[in-house]
Design a protein that fits this description.
single chain; 7-stranded antiparallel beta sheet; binds fe (ii) ion; alpha+beta; globular; AlkB-like_sf; binds 2-oxoglutaric acid; N-terminal domain of TfIIb
């Protein structure tokens, strides 16, 4: 019972929904605009009633070809639809937009682990987790949950059975990535965001993500993680000056379809004024207006805080630090010259920019503008360097090349920022010899030997376009290196969630086995500051 017609953009389908699924007591045709999922023919998918992740109210979602979509509701005061030779009295417009299923499944997984206090809770099987009383349609999401929940869960396999348990630190890392990518996207979506300062955009991004999160524990933990002061948005009035309200706009809207709530409370299933009052996610305009309140505090240091990874307190990993376009431009410059800049070493090629580094300081050479553009961005956005970065080493590694475990020299200020381009790679950190027990005087590790102090060693997965920063303890007390193997295991890396959440489409990762296949060249830019500069060396 579906009629379809195309209007303006995407694919419009008018859905005839039976009373049991949609609106009690009435059979109505409604118009829904949904992305054409490509391979589903004219099948519009299923409408599932699931609990809204924030309000917990029964909310209608469209599940189509493995994609979960939330539904926005727009209603003009007067209007109907002409659909072929049929008139639909209800002039509402429903619009389905993809929603990350992790948001929707988060409360279900949270509840299923039956966590008490500090106890991390129980590992459970998926079908058990997705058994939610009163909401049988969660079972439709079995295969989807299997695909996406590993990002926020610990998993255990016993024979052919797989068990899942939500992991708070993974959830927070994933949420931080969501906030970061939204913060990046907002200025391109709306010129108001482009005009405001970065801190405010971050606050706005958290607020929007917060529309899909329960305040306790997730939203509060997220604010905490980002170093923001939590302010309950529901206690503040909506800023209706920035964005016109529903009446001014002659449009009413909601994305929370309340048939379940109405059924439960015995309210008539009609589009009464009350039924339009949403309880779930707010419409996008409302979200934005609420997000615009300027009552949260942030500074660069606190922002950087949210990128901390692992237990060593001085390692930061920022995914997507440069865009695809910036990556291409940088590679064009690196490979664009005559080629004479490259110095071939035993296990890699190297370009040295900024001058010669000696034990006593730098004999400087001006950095080209394409490099100062990126070093200035690192300097300004991290706030970790006391003055401009003045030295950059560019390393090129083929898949079977690496760099031996080493410590960076004493001439540098003890902060390193490494921008990765091209192939992903795993960097290993192991404690410096002097930190290990006195009987342990094996120096093989300095020469790339296989021995590893597993208790304190850690690794970082460096995805293309990411920035890795390490400083202080991680700079002075650890050796860092990259093995020369074309396959690397990333099981033990401290930033798996951050790295993978940002690049889920990367084909070179071998999902379950956690093996990285390095099948491309990697280029890195090691950006540092040499504080002592011999300015007058060549002046007479
Ligand atoms: O290529 C990398 O990621 C590391 C380079 C490095 O450690 C160095 O240049 O000192
Ligand atoms: Fe290094």
């Amino acid at each position: 019972m579906y009629a379809s017609s195309t209007v303006g953009f995407g694919l419009t389908r008018s859905l005839k929904m039976s009373s049991t699924v949609w609106w009690e007591g009435v059979e109505k045709t409604r118009v829904l605009i949904a992305a054409d999922s490509g391979c589903g023919g004219n099948k519009p998918g299923e409408l599932l009633t699931l609990r809204h992740p924030k309000s917990e109210n029964g909310t209608c979602y469209l599940f189509n070809n493995g994609m979960l979509q939330e539904i926005q509701w727009f209603k003009q005061s007067y209007g109907s639809w002409f659909l072929g030779d049929y008139i639909s009295q209800d002039g509402s417009l429903y619009m389905a937009t993809p929603v990350d299923p992790v948001f929707i499944l988060l409360p279900v997984f949270d509840q299923a682990r039956m966590k008490k206090g500090d106890d991390p809770g129980k590992f459970r099987q998926l079908d058990e987790i997705l058994f939610v009383e009163g909401y049988p349609e969660y079972q439709h999401l079995l295969s989807l949950a299997e695909k996406c929940m590993e990002i926020v869960c610990q998993t255990q396999e016993v024979g052919s059975m797989k068990f899942y348990r939500l992991d708070n630190s993974k959830v927070l890392a994933w949420l931080t990535c969501k906030v970061r990518s939204l913060k990046k996207a907002l200025p391109a979506l709306d010129k108001n965001y482009a005009a405001q300062d970065e801190k405010q955009t971050l606050v706005d991004a958290v607020s929007i993500v917060g529309e899909y999160l329960k305040t306790e524990p997730w939203l509060k933990l997220l604010y905490d993680r980002l170093g923001l002061e939590f302010v309950d948005p529901t206690t503040k009035e909506t800023n209706t000056e920035t964005f016109p309200n529903a009446i001014e706009n002659k449009m009413e809207y909601s994305n929370s379809l309340q048939e379940r709530a109405n059924k439960k409370t015995g309210k008539p299933g009609k589009q009464t004024k009350q039924a339009k009052v949403e309880t779930g996610s707010k419409n996008i305009r409302d979200m934005f207006s609420r997000a615009c309140k300027k009552n949260l505090i942030l500074d660069t240091a606190m922002e950087l805080e949210s990128f901390r990874v692992g237990l060593t307190p001085t390692v930061f990993y920022i995914p997507g630090f440069v865009t695809d376009q910036e990556q291409t431009q940088l590679l064009d410059h690196i490979y664009g010259g005559s080629g004479s800049k490259w110095k071939t070493l035993k296990n890699r090629r190297l370009q040295n920019w900024g001058g010669m580094v000696h034990e006593k300081g730098l004999v400087p050479q001006e950095l080209p503008s394409w490099l100062t553009k990126i070093t200035a961005k690192i300097h300004e956005s991290t706030g970790l360097f006391p003055s401009n970065i003045n030295h950059v080493l560019i390393n090129e590694y083929h898949p079977d090349q690496g760099i031996m475990p080493h410590q960076d020299g004493p001439a540098y200020f003890p902060v390193v920022a490494i921008l990765s381009l091209g192939s992903p790679v795993v960097m290993d950190f192991s404690p410096h010899l002097r930190l290990r027990s006195s009987s342990d005087d094996d120096i093989s590790r300095e020469c790339g030997g296989p021995e590893r102090d597993n208790q304190h060693s850690f690794s970082v997965l460096m995805m293309p376009r990411s920035l890795l920063i390490f400083k202080d303890d991680a700079y002075s007390d650890y050796l860092h290196g990259i093995s020369d193997s074309p396959t690397q295991c990333y099981k033990q890396v401290v930033n798996e969630t951050e790295a993978l959440a940002y690049s889920s489409g990367d084909s070179r990762k071998d999902g379950d086995n956690k093996i990285l296949h390095r099948d491309q060249t990697r280029v890195s830019l090691t950006c540092r500051l040499v504080p002592k500069v011999h300015k007058n060396l060549f002046r007479f």
